[in-house]
Amino acid sequence: MAEVILMPRLSDTMTEGVIAAWHKKVGDTVKKGDLLAEVETDKATMELESYKDGTLLHIGTDKGGKLQVNDLLAIIGAPGEDVSSLVHSPQSTVHSPEIATSNKKQVSGNQQPSTAKASEGKPASADLSAGVPTQAKAPAGKQATATVTAIDISKMDEVVLMPRLSDTMTEGVIAAWHKNIGDTVKKGDILAEIETDKATMELESYKNGTLLYRGAEKGEKIEVNALLSIIGEKGKVDVDAIVAAAKGGVAMAQGTSDKAQQPVTSSQQPSFAKASEGKPATTTEGNGRVKASPLAKKLAKEKGIDLKLVHGTGDGGRITKDDIDNYRPQTIVDSPQSVQKTPQPIAQVPAFTPGAGEGYTDTPNSQMRKTIAHRLGESKFSAPHFYLTMEFNMDNAMSARAQMNEFSPVKISFQDMLIKACAMALRQHPAVNSSWMGDFIRTYQHIHIGSAVAVPEGLIVPVIKFADQKSFSQIAAEAKELYGKAKEKKLQPHEFTGNTFTISNLGMMDIEEFTAIINPPD
Questions:
Q1: Residue 489's CB: how many other CB atoms inside 10 A?
Q2: CA atoms of 172 and 196, how far apart (whole Å)
Q3: HEC sequence for 110-178
Q4: d(Cα 51, Cα 71) in Å, to the nearest integer?
Q5: CB neighbours of 43 closer than 8 A, spacing ≥ 6?
Q6: Can you give the pLDDT of all 522 residues of the chain as single tens digits?
Q7: d(CA 398, CA 419)
Q8: In whole angstroms, what is the distance from residue 273 CA to residue 15 CA?
Q9: What is the largest CA-CA distance in the chain?
Q10: What is the end-to-end Cα distance of the chain in Å, rounded?
Q11: Which of 298, 484, 322, 177 lies closest to 310 in space, CA to CA?
Q12: Quick count: other Cβ atoms within 10 Å of Cβ 65?
């Protein structure tokens, strides 16, 4: 009997998977342990193995297609077996594929969906049907009934939803659009820059077409999984129906000129388009936009510098922060105030009259600041805090640092030495390398040290992983790279998550001691 394979949940935050590659095609013989496909999740690209012998009779989507968790991924059975009933209502036998043990990623057992079998001819509890046609009745005095099909926009190739670009992201702000409505879009083109609570990241198009709709303009917020844009063939995509379905769950009528409104009926969760990994643009856009990093654009705006006059030294001529810092205009006009008036003696003090009334300025909080406030506020009142202070004589450390820097390929800072010292102390006292989980305490066997970095939008914590196993030079080199990415808002999620202990240093401001808040999940 043919058996259905559903898309498994391969990480705790996964809601959908993209087929990166199929290793078997329909009609191929499959043996237990053979690689079926590679699935790209929000965390990694992972290999799926077959759990049984048979013939691959059906695949749920081609390479590059998206599937929700628990959607139909494949059907394996006997050669020539009729699986049409399973394709339209795949409920007879439900299995989740095994996850290959590879160097791409390992997944713990509690992240795999359960395996459930139902007796032949009787449907199992899993319901994979979506978008079933329904009948919508027109109001009295209107047109007669029309056949409508519910729209599940998350399954439409033309729809681009706001992706979750970090584990704490709930919404994103459009920092910039690189394509206008009506522009031709190619796979790999930069659509927009999205400001998250962690960084500003470039979002690339995953398909070719024309940009038909934008869900928000520059500076506006969009929640995760909300409609971001529509890309398709002009004149062949009902943009109004998709937008209406996204906003109010409207169904699209077929067969009459009237459109009946019906709620969208789907058991699936919204998906999101594959986001770029924050890679800098390497080609010039057709619209002639100047290629520059977000930080360079911000600095240029603050300094009143026209980016078109700046020569970029980055990849592909991209303008960087250093290019803005080193830019010198050809002509500089000096207007010093050389004349100073001698103050006249005051005969009497006049009555004070304010030059303007009271006022204030509201500055919207960045996504990063709002997340910091929420997470640290939650940490302060959910995990017990206590504070201890000690003084250390650093004379020997200063001498050792001077000696190491004579032969180290990268300059070692006191912060680098502190990271290494904390890592070794945690190895000696493993109980400190733990997290308060409410009902239990989790003690980690690995040591990942977070180092707080101040950026204009707030505070972010790059993570030096396995710090106890790295040399001073390795820690210094990695920290320097991560700090640079943090200041340019180019950190990727795996570079600022997973810390088991965090260091926050204000010594450069002559602060002798301060009371910190535990940085989750420390």
A1: 24
A2: 5
A3: HHCCCCEECCCCCCCCCCCCCCCCEEECCCCCCCCCEEEECCCHHHCCCEEECCCCCCCCCEEEEEEEC
A4: 18
A5: 10, 11, 13, 14, 105
A6: 788 888 887 765 678 888 989 999 999 999 888 888 988 876 567 788 887 889 999 999 999 888 988 888 999 988 888 888 888 764 444 444 544 433 333 333 334 433 333 333 333 333 333 333 333 333 333 343 333 345 567 667 788 888 887 767 888 899 999 999 999 998 878 889 998 877 788 888 878 899 999 999 998 999 988 899 999 888 888 888 888 888 764 434 333 333 333 333 333 333 333 333 333 333 344 556 677 777 788 788 888 888 888 888 876 677 887 888 888 876 544 554 544 556 656 667 888 888 777 888 888 887 777 877 887 787 777 777 878 888 888 899 999 999 999 999 999 999 999 999 999 999 999 999 998 888 899 999 999 999 988 888 778 889 999 999 999 999 999 999 999 988 888 888 889 889 999 998 877 777 777 778 877 766
A7: 15
A8: 11
A9: 109
A10: 50
A11: 322
A12: 13
Taken as a whole, the chain contains a residue count of: 522
Both structure tokens of 405: 């820097």
Spell out the domains of the chain, with CATH numbers in brackets.
3-117 (2.40.50.100), 134-254 (2.40.50.100), 294-326 (4.10.320.10), 367-509 (3.30.559.10)
Residue where the block lists tokens 């299995």: 95
45: Cα within 13 Å, side-chain hemisphere = 9
Distance of CA 145 to the CA centre of its chain: 44
- What are the structure tokens assigned to 430, written together? 């493993």
- The amino acid at residue 153 is I
Q: How far apart are the C-alpha atoms of 245 and 242, rounded to whole Å?
A: 5
The pair phi, psi for residue 408, each rounded to 5°, is -70, 135
As a whole number of angstroms, the distance between CA 290 and CA 297 comes to 10
The amino acid that residue 125 corresponds to is: S
Residues 6 or more apart from 70 whose CB is under 8 A from it? 6, 7, 9, 113, 126, 128
User: Under a CB-based contact definition with an 8 Å cutoff, are residues 76 and 94 in contact?
Assistant: no
Task: Assign residue 493 a region (left: φ > 0; alpha: ψ between -120 and 50; beta: otherwise).
Answer: alpha
Calculate the dihedral angle through the C-alpha atoms of 163, 165, 171, 174, rounding to the nearest 10 degrees.
Answer: -80
Tokens of 480: 């320097």
Question: How many C-beta neighbours within 10 Å does residue 482 have?
Answer: 21
Structure tokens at 170: 């709930």
